[in-house]
Input
Amino acid sequence: MIVVTTETVPGREIAEVIDIVQGSTVRTRGVGRDIVAGLRTIVGGEVHEYAELLTTARAEALNRMVAEAEKLGADAVVQVRYNTADVMQGTAELLAYGTAVRLKDSPG
Output
């Protein structure tokens, strides 16, 4: 599966636009992470606990989006974007979305 943030796949032509696809996950920070992050704000620096949480959430949302595209028979997802939204205090949704497409067969 080809996944790009551009309108097209370089060197390939889109034969058919299938549909918008998306994948999301809702995550909570957790008390343990909040305590460590709170301490880290005192001394400064990157909050590794949250960085790891967001990296995992992005990967999960992307994998769910790709799975949806595969179910539709897509070869690629173009115009991929991420969005976040608060669901409730301490909880956020991370959404990956894009356009599932079928590509023309490449020559040769």
